[in-house]
Specification:
Length: 178
């Protein structure tokens, strides 16, 4: 059965109770921790024990196309333990060094998106092993645990909305959708 766990700040629980009241799937609300990693670990504790596939998604990416979600789920269902959607980096990138900086070959770089998908047992074990560390995403938690990460195509529509200007980009994307 499909269900969702929504991790929220302690001061936002009441607001989210109203927001998810009529959701089409059962939703558990969980109070997050001091870090993203701790928040995900807490959320994992609320995932049904019989769940095999877990997706971890950031609210900052509200426009992820269903095809990306389906691709992540398909890769995990096909045997991958950890899956992330990615897109090619289009900006020139420089690596800071002791001597200044140097150009990085962007053809070797990918920008990571969410949702990231995992075999539940693998992600739980990786998070338990990673307690006390500070990884920026769950794929990094799994890699630190020795799990190979599979890459699937992401989408340029899955913009991260973190700055006021990102809202204009999101509005333009929405305007182009049926």
């Amino acid at each position: 059965m499909t269900s969702a766990v929504v991790v929220v700040a302690a001061n936002a629980v009441e607001q989210f109770v109203e927001v998810v009241a009529n959701a089409p799937v059962p939703i558990a609300l969980v109070v997050g921790g001091a870090s993203r990693q701790e928040s995900v670990r807490r959320g994992l504790l609320a995932v049904a024990a019989d769940a095999d596939v877990v997706l971890v998604h950031d609210a900052a990416r509200p426009l992820v196309p269903p095809t990306v979600v389906a691709g992540v789920i398909s890769a995990v269902a096909g045997g991958a333990d950890a899956v992330i959607p990615v897109i090619p980096v289009t900006d020139s990138v420089r690596l800071l060094t002791a001597a200044g900086s140097e150009m990085v070959d962007r053809s070797l770089l990918r920008a990571v998106q969410t949702p990231q998908g995992f075999r539940r047992s693998v992600l739980v074990a990786a998070h338990e092993a990673a307690q006390g560390s500070d990884h920026t995403d769950d794929a990094a938690v799994c890699e630190a645990y020795g799990v190979a990460v599979t890459l699937v195509p992401g989408s340029s529509d899955a913009v991260k909305v973190t700055h006021p200007g990102d809202l204009a980009v999101a509005a333009a994307i929405l305007a182009g959708r049926p």
